[in-house]
Specification:
It is built from 6 helices and 8 strands. With 168 residues, it is of the alpha/beta class.
Length: 168
C-alpha cells in the first residue's frame, strides 16, 4: 500500500526525521510532504469548494499539493506536535482544509449523517504526535476525521510508540 506522510513539524526536528525514516523503511511507494515552509491558511468556511468551484478550494495557497496527494496514496500519516493537549494549529489547518474531498450532499451511514465523498477513495488515516496529550482523545478525533472522509483510522500514537511498532 502506498504511504503519504504529512509532516506538520519542523523539517529539522530530529524526532520527526527519525520517525519518518522508520516509517518509510522498506517502502517503495511513499511521499513525504513537509508543511513547515508551505503557505497553508486556515479554512474560512466559505463553502466555495462545494458550491462555486466543486472540489477546488477558493484559498490559493500551497494546500492543493496535499489535496491531490490524498487521492494518490492509500495510507495518510500525519506528524504533529501538541499544545494544550491537542494538535498544534498547523496540523489542525491541514485537517480543516480536507473539505474539498467531500460534497455538500448528505447521506446516512450507520445512523449518522455524512457528506457524500467527491471521489471513490477511501484512505486510512493515522496521527503520530510529539508532546503531551490524551492519546485516547486524539485517537477518537482521528477516528472522527476518518469517518467523515469515509475512510478508516489506525488511531493516534506517540513518536515513541512508533519506534516500537513494525510498519504500516
Amino acid at each position: 500500500m502506498s504511504l503519504l506522510i504529512i509532516n506538520t513539524m519542523s523539517e529539522d526536528d530530529e524526532s520527526a526525521q527519525n520517525c519518518i525514516q522508520q516509517l518509510i523503511k522498506d517502502k517503495q511507494d511513499y511521499k513525504v510532504i513537509h508543511t513547515e515552509n508551505m503557505k497553508i491558511n486556515p479554512c474560512i468556511g466559505c463553502n466555495a469548494c462545494w458550491l462555486k468551484t466543486p472540489g477546488i478550494c477558493a484559498i490559493k495557497d500551497d494546500y492543493e499539493e496535499i489535496l491531490k496527494a490524498y487521492l494518490q496514496y492509500d495510507i495518510v500519516l500525519f506528524l504533529a506536535e501538541t499544545s494544550l493537549g491537542f494538535v498544534r494549529y498547523p496540523m489542525k489547518n491541514v485537517i480543516d482544509r480536507i473539505l474539498p474531498l467531500a460534497t455538500m450532499y448528505i447521506c446516512v451511514v450507520d445512523g449518522q449523517m455524512r457528506h457524500v465523498p467527491r471521489y471513490d477513495k477511501k484512505n486510512t488515516f493515522g496521527l503520530i504526535y510529539k508532546g503531551m496529550a490524551d492519546q485516547d482523545y486524539l485517537s477518537h478525533w482521528m477516528e472522527r476525521v476518518a469517518i467523515n472522509m469515509h475512510g478508516t483510522s489506525i488511531g493516534a500514537f506517540t513518536m515513541e510508540q512508533i519506534q516500537e511498532r513494525q510498519g504500516y
